[in-house]
Amino acid sequence: MKKVLILTAGFGEGHNAAARNLRDALELVAPETQVEVLDLFESTYGRLNSIVKTAHLGMVRYAPTLWRGIYSLLDHASVGDSGVGGLTRLRSALDDVLRVTQPDCVVSTYPAYAPVIKELFRDHSEKPFRFVTIVTDSISVNASWHRAPSDAFVVANRPTATVLHHAGVPAERIYPLGFPVSPQFAAPGIQPCPLEDDGPIKLLYVINHGKKKCGKVLDRLLENERVHLTITTGRDAELKAELQDRFRKYDGRVQVLGWTNQMPALILSHHVLIGKAGGAVVQEAIAA
After folding, report:
1. How many Å apart are CA 259 and CA 193, to the nearest integer?
2. Burial grade of 45 (CB within 10 A; 0-12, 13-18, 19 or more)
3. What CATH architecture is 186-287?
4. Of the candidates 218, 272, 279, the residue with the CA atom closest to the CA atom of residue 249
5. CB 182 within 8 A of CB 264
6. For 222-266, how does the pLDDT look when each residue is reduced to its tens digit (9 = 90+)?
7. CATH dotted code for 3-180
8. d(CA 278, CA 258)
């Protein structure tokens, strides 16, 4: 029985989405394979990891200029070349996991794992497993993804493959196979949601940020009587209740949902997706 270990981190939904979707696909096409998904940042750093994730999300949403500056800094060649001294606990945890699980293949959907694996096996002639990096960046690729070696780099498209190759990654190690989306998008019989000339226009509105203004935007959309809205509010129960009350008068044209794990089915059953253009969501929209 083959063993696959998938390493992820919760700094942005794209990393976790890629990890989950790859696991689901492997379990579907190779049920005999043992697949495990681990977030070693979560299990190793606990509360500190939660604080850093919250700070990261806050910067992306409310201080994008600051985040672009940090992202650019991480992309600079001189940053991060000092090894993994600041990730000692992660290094120890990963060493333990690899020794216990003895995987045939390790897949990383987050760039910090590659330099740790490089450090762990620097005195070995070769690793006892294949190491694959799934790059969740598209076209604009941070150098942290390819600064450490990998047996294979899986990227979303050919332009991204070209970027990696120009950055020095050997072409034979780059695989433009696409982003790992849910297997639901490849289910037999799946058809695009038809749009009839006089029929309803089904909009899926995913609220990630801008909650204070979303009500006015939704009001404007509903001025078109053909528009039918499905709204997701995530884990914000207060916002969900507020919108349900606000749009009760539209009777059947508006559905308000909280957190859901049925996003692939929702995307497939709507004509337009409105929301933050995160890497995973964009790839899911393309797949639909």
Report:
1. 23
2. middle
3. 3-Layer(aba) Sandwich (3.40)
4. 218
5. yes
6. 999 999 999 999 888 999 999 999 999 987 899 999 988 888 889
7. 3.40.50
8. 19
Q: What is the pLDDT of residues 120-150, one digit of tens each?
A: 998 876 899 999 999 999 888 988 899 999 9
- For the record, the structure tokens of 249 come out as 């008068």
Q: Using CA atoms, how far apart are residues 148 and 121, in angstroms rounded to an integer?
A: 12
Residue-range domain boundaries for the chain? 3-180, 186-287
User: Contact 39/9 with Cβ under 8 angstroms?
Assistant: yes
SS (H, E, C) 206-220: ECCCCHHHHHHHHHH
| Spatial CB neighbours of 121, under 8 Å, sequence gap ≥ 6 | 127
Q: Which residues contact 80 (CB under 8 A, 6 or more apart)?
A: 74, 115, 144, 147
Distance CA 179, CA 186 (A): 13
Query: Residue 43 forms beta bridges with which residues?
Result: none
pLDDT digits (tens, 9 = 90+) for 96-126: 999 999 999 999 999 999 999 999 998 876 8
The CA–CA distances, whole Å, from 86 to 50, 112, 215 equal 17, 11, 44
Tokens of 99: 């020794």
Q: DSSP secondary-structure letter at 194?
A: P
Tokens representing 123 are: 């005195």
- 3-180 with 186-287: one CATH topology? yes
Cα gap 232→125, rounded to integer Å = 50
CB atoms within 10 A of CB 64: 11
Distance (Å, rounded) from C-alpha 284 to C-alpha 288? 6
Max CA separation in the chain (angstroms): 69
